[in-house]
């Protein structure tokens, strides 16, 4: 199945009011590539201003709590994100799995709650350098995905999986196209095992040092349905050529 590509930016802990001009420029340019779905996942406090700055453009969050509401100081629910105008959220980013000690079960609960509420979800998985060097990358990442995926195929079309090797994030190192192809093929099998034919409709994104100079090659790789882009999503001058490459690939 050929899926339209999704190019999502992850602004991480970057972005204040003065950066909304970049967001406006990205949103305006994205309109030139109607075949590519484009989104920016911004800090939670910027979501509402981002939605106002670029009406109709997909704005996402970077995390969500699994509960609807309650005594969870500092957390934000799916309902709150929707209320602020977000249409999607990242869950299970390796920076949160590491610094916030998020386990697979928690990532699964977040994905489930977000999908049930109507948000799109980008669920991140990826191996450490140690796991890759030990030849355990495929095994570790498919196990991680199986444990992080919701059990039921609720709205699988609103789910994307991002394969982000931890050693490639923010380092300038990129997985080889052969490695990406092998991993994405294994993740596709995992998704079909879990969701049946609907698993073929889940987009699998690559993330980790995607830049204008390597995007075209990555998008041409089989089973790559888009990208999750960190550093190169902060400026329109870097991000728009990546969107353009997705339109070609
Ligand atoms: P990077 O980040 O593109 O800066 O490597 C990707 C990510 O962490 O999602």
Structural account:
This protein is α/β, with parallel strands linked by helices. The protein has one domain (5-248): Aldolase class I (TIM Barrel), CATH 3.20.20.70. 41% of the residues lie in helices and 15% in strands. It is built from ten helices and eight strands. An eight-stranded parallel barrel has the order 1-2-3-4-5-6-7-8, surrounded by six helices. Helix 1 packs parallel to helix 10 (236-248), helix 5 crosses helix 7 (137-148) and helix 9 (212-220) packs parallel to helix 10 (236-248).
- Number of separate strands: 8
How many structural domains does the protein architecture include? 1
For the sheet with most strands, the description reads: 8 strands, parallel, barrel
Question: What share of residues are in beta strands?
Answer: 15-25%
**How many H/I helical runs?**
10
Judging by the overall fold, what is the CATH architecture?
Alpha-Beta Barrel
Uncertain spans: none
How are strands sequenced across the largest beta sheet? 1-2-3-4-5-6-7-8
User: Could you say which overall geometry the principal axes of the C-alpha atoms support?
Assistant: globular
CATH topology: TIM Barrel
The residue fraction in helices comes out at 40-55%
Report Rg: 17 Å
Overall average residue pLDDT: 96
């Amino acid at each position: 199945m050929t899926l339209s590509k999704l190019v999502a930016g992850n602004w991480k802990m970057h972005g204040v009011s003065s950066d909304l001009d970049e967001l406006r420029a990205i949103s305006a340019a994205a309109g030139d590539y109607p075949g590519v779905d484009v989104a920016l996942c911004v800090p939670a406090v910027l979501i509402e201003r981002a939605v106002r700055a670029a009406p109709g453009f997909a704005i996402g969050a970077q995390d969500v709590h699994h509960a609807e509401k309650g005594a969870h100081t500092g957390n934000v629910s799916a309902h709150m994100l929707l209320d602020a105008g977000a249409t999607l959220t990242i869950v299970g980013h390796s920076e949160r799995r590491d610094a916030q000690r998020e386990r697979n079960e928690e990532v699964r609960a977040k994905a489930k709650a977000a999908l049930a509420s109507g948000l799109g979800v980008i669920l991140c998985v990826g191996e450490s350098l140690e796991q890759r060097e030990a030849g355990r990358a495929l095994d570790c990442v498919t196990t991680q995905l199986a444990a992080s995926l919701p059990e039921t195929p609720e709205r699988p079309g609103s789910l994307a999986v991002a394969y982000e090797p931890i050693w490639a994030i923010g380092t300038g190192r990129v997985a080889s196209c052969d490695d990406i192809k092998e991993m994405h093929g294994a993740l596709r099998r995992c998704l079909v095992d879990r969701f049946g034919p609907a698993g073929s409709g889940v987009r699998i994104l690559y993330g980790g040092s995607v830049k204008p100079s390597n995007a075209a090659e990555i998008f041409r790789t089989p089973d790559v349905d888009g990208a999750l882009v960190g550093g190169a999503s902060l400026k329109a001058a870097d991000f728009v050529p990546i969107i353009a490459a997705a339109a070609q690939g």
